[in-house]
Write a structure and sequence with these properties.
heterodimer, A: 110 residues, alpha+beta, Arc Repressor Mutant, subunit A, two-stranded antiparallel ribbon, B: 523 residues, 7-stranded antiparallel β-sheet, 6-stranded antiparallel β-sheet, 7 helices, 26 strands
Chain lengths: 110, 523
């Protein structure tokens, strides 16, 4: 896929994946691939800068846990992150509806 | 090489404000990610070689590069803040350095200016000091010249001659007489105006008059007790005359006399007093020159025998009306005694052997303070023509050519008989009575008489009050004074007018005396 199309939605996808429960970086990439049926593949170069940015913006919080003898960083959505996610979802729907309308494609609300 | 070592190699050198766990967190997170990816790779493709390279290839970017980017993102604010702080510090340091430089430059400039100002001030001070020294030297030189000139006899110029008067006390030793008054009056040959100089003799008996023009001068020497002598001295050109005068050694011995008045019956009870003048008639002879006492003494003698002495006696409009000395006995005004009187109890201290006592005036005394307040109608002491300089024309029509009224003839007394009884001539008694009752004046006599009318303007105490019209009309009536009928019941402000009237004539003139008002309390 065109990476430019994905770049605007990376943060929304990350927030949505984390909204399901605390998770870590590698798992997030796998979830995005699985939930998009292999269509989206988040590169690490996009994922980790976005995660750290959202953490600095207080939309995510993180804690370290032990897993397989290593330290692993788990992310979870904050209240502010939930609000931002809802807002981004609405914006995306309006965007998609507009794009579909222009293209003459049928739009089905999820 | 393990994942952490591999990743950590890409991180920049530690910064001063770097959070302590930042590097480890980045390395651990990325290592965990790569390890998970490697585990999955081994699980999904256990037979394929070099799983690590495949994991790295799928990573999409160099782990070192990503770690570096994450570290930079985390440290961005700190780094920016550090750089900003550094920039501010650098700018501040630059500003400070610039300011210091400017201040240093300014201080250098000020220092230079101060040094210049100091040098300039010192230069000026030196100049001033030099000028002062020069001026001082010049002054000293001038002073020295002046002293030389003073020591030289001033009669070098024939136009000016030094004049000194030396007074010596009578006796064999002829010691210097100090404290004597010396007057020089006269006219220089080349001058039209008379000069008058007065000096006191010093301890050497000399009165120095400096230099005078050649001429004839009148020199009067007066002893401290009043005796004086006058002589004439001619100052010739080129001479330095020293006039020597021998004065009495001491004042005449003091004694006391008892002046009194022989009051005629006609005047008794009229409450009038006599003002008389006492003049010493004898002189002290020194080297055949007479030293006389020209000072007159004035006595007021009451009918009860008490006396008061005055330094001098004048009328207030004596000069204003221009009647000369005669005005003292012609003008109806309050007498003014310029000096406070000395009351005497019958005896009068006297120096000299004889005296002439002249009757000057008969006066009405104020009942309040027994000082003469007005002379009312004045008797003439002699039937002489009136004299006036100011009213010469008018008076001459009345009285003929101007003449000075003669001085009253006095009676002479000696200290051999200290009881000096002054008698009042009969004709004077008659004129006094006539003067006190002007309506009864006989009228056709050839003599003129001056008598006063007074207008009494009733006023308040300070003389500035305003009168009502009725009061003013009533109070401005003219009265001829008859002292015996004078009903003084309150305080008056007396304004006097002079009325000169020729006997038998209705034509006359009046003249207001210049503000000769005087207030007194009536009985």
């Amino acid at each position: 896929m065109d990476s430019k199309l994905l770049s605007g939605a990376v943060e929304m996808l990350i927030l949505e994946v984390i909204a399901a429960g605390p998770t870590y970086g590698y798992q997030i990439t796998q979830d995005v691939i699985a939930r998009s049926n292999g269509y989206f593949e988040l590169t690490e170069g996009s994922l980790y800068p976005a995660l750290h940015r959202l953490e600095r913006q207080k939309f995510l919080s993180a804690d370290w846990r032990e897993a397989d003898g290593r330290r692993r960083k788990y992310y979870r959505l904050t209240a502010a992150g939930k609000k931002v996610l809802e807002q981004k979802k609405q914006e995306w729907q309006q965007f998609a509806r507009g794009v579909h309308g222009v293209l003459g494609l049928p739009y089905v609300m999820a | 090489m393990s994942w952490p070592d591999d990743i950590e190699a890409g991180l920049p050198a530690p910064e001063q404000n770097e959070p302590p766990a930042l590097r480890r967190d980045i390395v651990d997170e990325l290592s965990d990610h790569l390890q998970c990816a490697l585990n999955r790779e081994l699980l999904n493709h256990p037979d394929e070689p070099d799983p690590r390279s495949r994991v790295l290839a799928r990573f999409g970017s160099s782990p070192q590069k990503l770690a570096r980017q994450l570290w930079l993102d985390a440290m961005k604010e700190t780094l920016m803040s550090n750089r900003l702080m550094l920039t501010i510090v650098v700018v501040l340091a630059a500003v400070c350095l610039t300011a210091c430089g400017m201040i240093w430059t300014q201080s250098k400039l000020l220092q230079e200016m101060a040094l210049q100002a100091r040098d300039e001030t010192q230069r000026l001070l030196h100049q001033r000091e030099a000028a002062s020294q020069a001026l001082l030297a010049q002054n000293r030189e001038l002073l020295a010249k002046l002293n030389e000139l003073q020591q030289q006899p001033p009669a070098q110029s024939p136009g000016w001659n030094p004049l000194k008067v030396r007074v010596l006390l009578d006796g064999e030793e002829q010691t210097p007489a100090a404290g004597f008054d010396v007057e020089v009056n006269g006219k220089a040959l080349s001058e039209s105006e008379e000069i008058g100089l007065r000096e006191k003799t010093a301890t050497d008996g000399v009165a120095n008059f400096g230099v005078v023009r050649p001429g004839q001068y009148r020199v009067t020497v007066m002893a401290p007790w009043g005796e004086s002598e006058t002589l004439y001295s001619v100052v010739r050109p080129g001479t330095e005359p020293v006039v020597e005068v021998v004065a009495p050694r001491q004042a005449p011995s003091p004694t006391s006399v008892r002046p009194s008045v022989e009051w005629p019956d006609a005047l008794k009870g009229l409450d009038v007093a006599v003002v008389c003048r006492l003049q010493r008639t004898d002189t002290t002879l020194i080297n055949e020159r007479a030293w006389a006492d020209g000072h007159a003494r004035y006595l007021l003698i009451r009918q009860d025998g008490t006396m008061a002495e005055y330094g001098s006696v004048h009328s207030e409009n004596y000069r204003a009306n221009g009647f000369g000395e005669a005005a003292d006995r012609l003008v109806t005004i309050p007498l003014t005694f310029y000096t406070d009187p000395t009351s005497l109890e019958g005896e009068l201290p006297w120096r000299g052997k004889s005296a002439e006592v002249a009757l000057l005036q008969l006066v009405k005394l104020s009942p309040q303070n027994e000082l003469p307040t007005a002379r009312g109608t004045l008797p003439l002491l002699s039937p002489s023509p009136l004299y006036s300089s100011a009213y010469w024309q008018q008076l001459s029509q009345l009285s003929g050519p101007r003449q000075r009224e003669p001085e009253p003839t006095g009676q002479t007394f000696s200290i051999d008989n200290p009881d000096w009884k002054v008698s009042i001539p009969d004709n004077l008694v008659k004129e006094v009575i006539a003067g006190l009752s002007p309506d009864d004046y006989p009228g056709e006599s050839a003599s003129q008489v001056a008598f006063g009318t007074m207008t009494f303007l009733r006023s308040d105490k300070d003389g500035n009050g305003e009168l009502s019209e009725t009061e003013a009309n009533e109070s401005q009536r003219s009265h001829r004074i008859k002292f015996s009928e004078f009903p003084v019941t309150r305080q008056y402000f007396v304004q006097t007018y002079l009325e000169m009237r020729k006997s038998g004539s209705s034509s006359g003139f009046s003249r207001s005396a210049p503000s000769s008002g005087r207030s007194f309390i009536g009985r």
